[in-house]
Amino acid sequence: MIHRTLRNELTALTVLLLFTALLYFPGLSGPFLFDDASNIVDNSRLTGTKETLLDWWGAAQSSGAGTLRRPIPMLSFAVQLQDGPPSSAFSLKLGNLAVHLVCGVALFVLASYLCRAMGLSGDSRYRYFPLLAAALWLTSPLLASTVLYPVQRMAQFSALFVISGLACYMYYRSKWVERAATPDEVAALALWLGIFTFLAVFSKENGILLPWLVVVLEACLLGGRWAGRRSLFAVRCARVAALLPVLAGMLFTLYQWDWVVGDYANRDFTITERLFTELRLSWEYLGWFFLPRIGELGLYHDDILLSSGFWSPVTTAISLFAWCLVIGFGIAIRLRFPWLLMAALFFLSGHSIESGILPLEIVFEHRNYLPLVGPVLLLAAVLHSLAFGLKRLSLHLGPWLPAVFVLILFSSSLGLRASVWSSDLELASASYGRHPDSQRSRHFYASTLIRHRNNATVSGREADEYLLVARHEFERSHIDDPLDLSALVMLYTIDSLHATEAADPERWFAGIERSVSKLKLRATEYASMRVLVACVAGGGCQPTESRMAEVVRVFSERFPGPYAGTQLRLQLLEAVAASSTERISLLESALEDSPHQLSHYYPLISAWLDEGNFSAAHLVILALIDADEDYRHLSTIAAMFKGGSS
Prior knowledge:
Blueprint: H1 2-24, H2 35-41, H3 53-60, H4 71-80, H5 90-117, H6 129-139, H7 144-147, H8 153-176, H9 183-201, H10 210-222, E1 225-226, E2 229-230, H11 232-255, H12 257-262, H13 271-290, H14 314-332, H15 339-350, H16 373-389, H17 401-420, H18 424-434, H19 439-454, H20 460-480, H21 485-497, H22 505-518, H23 523-538, H24 545-558, H25 562-575, H26 580-593, H27 601-611, H28 614-627, H29 634-642
Antiparallel strand pairs: 1-2
Helix pairs in contact: 1-5, 1-6, 3-4, 5-6, 5-8, 6-16, 6-17, 8-9, 10-11, 10-15, 13-14, 14-15, 15-16, 18-19, 19-20, 20-21, 21-22, 21-23, 22-24, 23-25, 24-25, 25-26, 26-27, 27-28
């Protein structure tokens, strides 16, 4: 009987995985996006054949994301890109889908061991609990933007290892509920948790939350069950352990306050505005999960109102009150229904890093990939309990109608989202249509129109319409924000490259000059400046050399961090065919200030080679070797000496 039940569950799980893959399949043909370029597509150390361990090490360390460079997902990309740079995103998105399916299996295992540890394995109310939890996770439309965005494999791998670590913990705890642990088992569990934490952290830094989430499950769901009885000592230990990360975070914030708030100078919001806004967003995230609203989901959410104070808007205070109410009610009913308290604490803990005090972007959907495990388990438990309460209905499937309805809602919404992600133009159009007040969505839409026109995917009258619509949208952005540098650059390049009755490039370049001196500069502005310099290099944009040099100088001095300014100046020198001596002077000055900015060494080597000074180039290579303390560039350096690179 047990084997038959297990076989039925595995068959159902297999069908579920195939069904999920079918729902996602249309979205696999979609485009690369934003961070995919720097981390994957244009990452020369990641793509191509890896012949030595140095090549693999260089690929693993080639990401600029995170403090630890997230080597595990980068290695997975390197395995897929052995044949060179990808021509499309299909294979990488297929890899992301595979990781998502494995996450669903891991959640199924976690839910199974949770039932055992809580003594629910024989409870008919939880007979299909693991399968339902996996189904809700796999078909949640909120997670689609993580699965179909190649670079977000980092978030996926981190979540996979965290869920696997939790499942491993529950495997051992399900044994210790009935009998005491042996020293070998404790050592084995500690080792496995260490391994999973290591793998999670080196996939994405928020994997460090695994030990804390273990404590959340222990404190909320197991209730101190140990060796056939309830241990008050275990309960108290779990509660104390749950508070330790909170205290550690507070001490870190106080000790590193200047470091924490320093980067807020480069943001359009303060730390107070961020924390208050995240309070409201936590409920937005939950709303997008429990009641999927396709019209509100998308790549960009910069149209969300910031909370300037506790009562501004009033929903900020309501959000905090609501969390206090949920947690308080969860504590009150924890003995009868512990899932509510667990879901609330799991969700908030999962968001504590990326939605906390760090000066990151305000909102991204992919941040929910791990935190949603708690709400998924809660919803599965609620649907099971509801089905048990309705079991006396005469209709055979009557008790399961609510669960079937939710799964149909999730699946249909996921299918719609995946179809939207099937092409960049459809995605951009939908994103802007659903978020008309989002400047980034508008820019994405207009830039996509320009790209399609330039790539000759449209022609004739349709191409002219694309150009006019794109120009109109950028002009609207300029009207909304006269200092919007991205809009000004695109208007200048459009009017420079395409003579129309409305063309006025001088007006837009004057706006660029004002913008770079007043606007708070961020990564999006750096990308716009690179577009401008590229237009100058191609000869389509022709400002005077002195004005262009001044714009780049002001931007470079005001942009945070030395890397971008130097790279932009170097790009301009190359655009105007400056001598190698000028390039050498710029790069040597930059390296004096930032000797560990390794990307500056390569153009300096090339400049010395252009001069014919091989000894100077050799000295720069030696300096690069000294600066490359973690050997990230050693394979590239070795290729230079083999004659494979210059």
